Amino acid sequence: MSALTELGLAEARDGLRAKKFSAREITEDHIKAVEAARPLNAYLCETPEKALAMAAASDERLAKGEGKPLDGLPLAIKDLFCTEGVPTTAGSKILEGFKPPYESTVTSQLWRDGAVMLGKVNLDEFAMGSANITSAYGHVENPWRRKGDNHALVPGGSSGGSAAAVAARAALAATGTDTGGSIRQPAAFCGLVGLKPTYGRCSRWGVVAFASSLDQAGPMTRSVRDAAVMLQSMAGYDPKDSTSANVPLPNFEAALTGDIRGMRIGIPREYRIDGMPAEIETLWERGIEWLKAAGATPVEVSLKMTEYALPVYYIIAPAEASSNLARYDGERFGKRVNGDTLDAMYENTRAEGFGAEVRRRILIGTYVLSAGYYDAYYLKAQKVRALIAQDFDKAFESCDALLTPTAPSAAFGIGEKFDNPIQMYLNDVFTVTVNLAGLPGISVPAGLSSEGLPLGLQVIGKAFDEESVLRVGQVIEQAAQFTAKPAFIAGEA
Q1: What's the confidence (pLDDT) of residue 452?
Q2: How does the average pLDDT of the chain come out, rounded?
Q3: Position 30 in a domain
């Protein structure tokens, strides 16, 4: 790895402005890193020529002193964001060959601010998964390895390609999307910072939909400051998205004061689940002590509806997916597989175009929305979802933010949990509540497991209070002093 690929996003930004190196130089080094990272299968589409052209435009602006906020910074884009003229597959065969004639709002704002696109990165098909093993284009490998063991590990999902690319130094940062933990969990598995903003903070326009009331775009970076810098460009009101919130956009980087004195940090008792590994519990306690040392006060809170979060999520998310994916029928959208009749064409198209996990969730979603079951399942799940949100409202009466683990384990091996969908779904146990309530959350790398793998702590905040989430997250980051690097870039794998 070159010295330039080791820089963080904010460091690279400052170096470019100080003319220590050019946008072309840092882009060329990242293009080489993308090529070196091919064994991880993180990138589905590399765009080196486009990257160099964007870098040249950045260098021109920087030379004139007209640099934009992200000028010359090479990024990876999750292949769920539509990118004009560049293939967008959502990790599915049904969108193979699709080149959008338009740009998603989030990516258009990144390009507006001068960022450079290295390419599109892999993901679980239609963002459905927790391990990045459901992509039609093959699984992604985590750049980390267990100590003394070269068995390939999952990077987490669905934003596993984003996480692997950033951890392998094949991008300064990446976009992700989070429907039930798909930014935060892979960030924890890969030793990164992953920020899921408040629902409505970032536009969903031009992002291929999974579950419309849960999906939210966010940044994946190597530091909390980098996440603040990325979010500044990604966020903002978009009239094209009816769920976009027309609220003021604060200066997220300026919120990183390091001062959390007097803040009350809620510790939800229901997150101490049966069977949680001792090292996760120990890390959580260490995080509480770090925040106490920084002047915050931990207070125990109750989120009593937590036990219902996973079943509620796995009713609402598949129901919305069933509706959203109905458009991919070979007639309106998606590749077509012909049949003798219209019904046969639909069946052939969807059977060949969708993978097993997507088909499973469509079937679940269609079932819970069907006559006779809508009230029993979907309507009841929406009522419980409202109670989960009320839990958070009540908890925030006595605290300013919450601290929890991000995931119940470190990254696991490819092939270890694949035959048990329920086990896979349990990876989201600490993260789905945040999506159901529409709140912001951040995962920060806070230590290593006994096997030498990254573990994350999660900070959850009030709606549209990303500033507090970032501030508390940075305090954890500074206390943890996480400097470990994955085996892939340490030359051990």
Answers
A1: 97
A2: 95
A3: yes
